[in-house]
Amino acid sequence: PVQTNEAALNGNGVQKPEPRLNDPDTLARQIVEKLTYSIGKNPASARKYDWLRATTLAVRDRIIDHWFESADRFAEEGGKRVCYLSMEFLIGRMLRDAINNLGLTEPVREALARYGVELDMIELLEPDAALGNGGLGRLAACFMESMASTGVPGYGYGIRYVHGFFRQEIADGAQVELPENWLVHGNPWEFERRNASYEIGFGGKVSMIQEAGRPARQVWRPAERVLAVAYDTPMVGWRGRQVNTLRLWSAQALDPILLDAFNSGDHIGALVESNKAEAITRVLYPADSHQAGQELRLRQEYFFSSASLQDIIRRHLEENDNLSNLADKVAIQLNDTHPAVSVAELMRLLVDVHGFGWDEAWTITRATFSYTNHTLLPEALEHWPIHLFERLLPRQMQIIYAINAGIIREAAQEHGYDDGQVAAISLIDEGNGRRVRMGQLAFVGSHAVNGVSALHTDLMKQTVFRDLHELYPDRIQNKTNGVTPRRWLMEANPGLTGLITEAIGPGFLDDIEKIIEIDDLADDAAFRERFAAIKRQNKERLANVIGERMATSVDPSAIFDIQVKRIHEYKRQFLNIIEAIALYDQIRSHPERNWTPRVKIFAGKAAPSYVQAKEIIHLANDVGRVINADPAVRDLLKVVFIPNYNVSLAEIIMPAADLSEQISTAGLEASGTGNMKFALNGALTIGTLDGANVEMLEHVGEDNIFIFGLTASEVAQRRREAHSGRSIIDNEPMLREALDAISSGLFCPDSPSRFHSLVSNLYNNDWWMICADFKAYWDTQRTLDDLYTRQDEWQAKAVHNTARMGWFSSDRSIREYARDIWKAGPGQAG
Ligand code: F55
């Protein structure tokens, strides 16, 4: 055992490190100290990566001071913890965020400048932590930052994937997926916690055991066991007031090299087991819109759910006598259904391991969990085949049957449900090969269930959860998404942040809703000009990126019309491309007209197995190649697809947009969060009445947003009527000519039939209402062309957008979760 001198540890502070000072002198000295003693380089021979690492380590020391303070404060004050369980945390880079939140940006810049090193340059060397697919994962990252910034004691729990979201390259117009390897040079932000590790079982058998004088109980003897090892990353809140922890689990073989096998000469056999264990946390699944359905995915879900719950329980029992007050001390938020097996696992831990009776365990479980739904798309809802579930998690399957029996009994006895109504709420889908419905499991195991925008929450009540909502009418509530203004305004757009600070003072940095104070400056010509000048600089920066990465030149005085997000049919990048083709036709047919120059910018990744989404990427690239090379359009139109969209690229793109494309088929986009990032940075939105666009309209006012197209209920109506595109195409020449151009092979002469199935889907079915919405979209785009020529008007609207987006801060979202769902954080009894 380690010998410690208690007196020295606690008494006179002999072993306490000196406090870290934040002046440039001290920072410069300590960066060089890290360079020398942690990295083993002297300043003269250090490479840029060495400087990044040394700077990160010096900044990390300061974070650790705040981290310990936060832990001590929590230990003193007690209160309730919030555990955010998410398969995904799409964080991006961490250095800029950390130093911004600690107020160190200028001192660090100055310290590095003394050695001739540019902060902005070394920041770019940090790899993105891309442990997520898109909106859901990025929301988890914004929420972690906002919990730390608003003083909620939040613990993120997730998976430490060795390979995050794949890197995208475009080869001959098509997406190519390459493995991502963010950990190759080590990760200075994480701390391995070997003492926090738990065994996770799979497979095996359940048997009833009867011990003398005790009630009979079920014991699960797993056939396989792996170890979950914790890695902690500090999450720094605004002004460093609070530092929370993101705990990510890594899988390891219990016995990395099975010594028996190894000693008996079976080297290969010994390593097979460790490979199988470590496979669990090897890679992030890249599908965001359909269920993977693979065994490895279910293993991932259970692995991180069980590890997190065991950790939560261990911590609770360190501070409390028993688990009966768990729900008073911990709130567990399930980020979609990916961790929904937690409901069964907590029941198992309470009943089988900690000896609770079923009913009390169920009360505790329900009071502890809450669940956020992020999609209504049927193909994205998780449902696991029963045979697979039972083979991998036999005890959890039993528990799910028991939960189901209880719910059905309640529905039948207390509410008189008939067989049809029972089938609708059952946790087991008997329809297609018997499956466990994870959404239903998460719903019944939670005291609160939320959607992520007002419209989405309403639709949840009417569609996917209609029957459960009828049974539990108080359970569903709305929590509209938000984005953190630190990363998405201050860090991404220092120019605009500086202008706003000059105009209204720095108060909005601590309370983003104060940004409304620039609203009246929309009428101030001098302010508008400075606002526009900053936009222009940000567009030049993006134009440079496009020039460097793709050797395409774009003119920053054109409208930057941007659609960046995952590629999906319901998000309708195809509609945007068709509009580009129609515009191309019109410019060539009517060269005499006063066209407003436009650059259409796309970026986003397709799931590797999503054929149509990959065709859409191919089309965008093929169309861009033809249009950009055609002298007839005289730079009036460019179409650019920027490869490898990720958080870092988003930080350059969001501030550079004039126009934000939020054009999903109404009723399909749960919320959207890119819509908020763009508008906060002064882009106007062209969008449908979908997701949070509806609430953005309410906040910015109808003069400042450009809404078009069918509403969600009109879409539902048309689908009931078996709508197809054919008659619309026949009556709309611009649309027909654009589709004919695609079908003719104009954009893909090497393979003219490449896009035939994309086009024939429109004729035969038009499921996503692309034909139905084309004309309204076209007309709205032309209104915007016209508006852009009146720069005063356009810029006034842009100012209103920035001014009125304060409500869409994730600080507001988090305060609502804390107040209505978690009953935790500042101002809660705790
Ligand atoms: C990831 C994995 C699976 Cl198996 C299914 C879905 C996803 C995923 O990434 N979903 C996702 O990003 N959903 C989005 O969540 C955002 C945050 O709430 C919403 O803004 C957005 O509308 C929704 O599509």
UniProtKB/TrEMBL annotation:
Ranges for the region named Disordered are 1-23
Entry-annotated residues carrying N6-(pyridoxal phosphate)lysine: 677
Which GO biological process categories is it annotated with? glycogen catabolic process
**One GO location term (cellular component):** cytoplasm
Q: What EC identifiers does the entry list?
A: 2.4.1.1
- GO MF, one example: pyridoxal phosphate binding
Subcellular location(s): the record lists:
Cytoplasm
- PROSITE patterns, per this entry? PHOSPHORYLASE (PS00102)
Name the coenzymes or cofactors required: pyridoxal 5'-phosphate
Keywords for this protein: Allosteric enzyme, Carbohydrate metabolism, Cytoplasm, Glycosyltransferase, Pyridoxal phosphate, Transferase
- Name the domain of life this protein comes from: Bacteria
Give the chief site where it resides.
cytoplasm
Q: Which reaction does it catalyse?
A: [(1->4)-alpha-D-glucosyl](n) + phosphate = [(1->4)-alpha-D-glucosyl](n-1) + alpha-D-glucose 1-phosphate
- Give the matching SUPFAM superfamilies: UDP-Glycosyltransferase/glycogen phosphorylase
Provide the top EC class. transferase
- Compositionally biased tracts (Polar residues): 1-7
Q: What does this protein do?
A: Phosphorylase is an important allosteric enzyme in carbohydrate metabolism. Enzymes from different sources differ in their regulatory mechanisms and in their natural substrates. However, all known phosphorylases share catalytic and structural properties.
- So what family is this one in? Belongs to the glycogen phosphorylase family.
Which PANTHER family does the UniProt entry name for this protein? GLYCOGEN PHOSPHORYLASE (PTHR11468), GLYCOGEN PHOSPHORYLASE, LIVER FORM (PTHR11468:SF3)
Give the protein name, as stated in the record: Alpha-1,4 glucan phosphorylase
**Source species, please?**
Aurantimonas aggregata
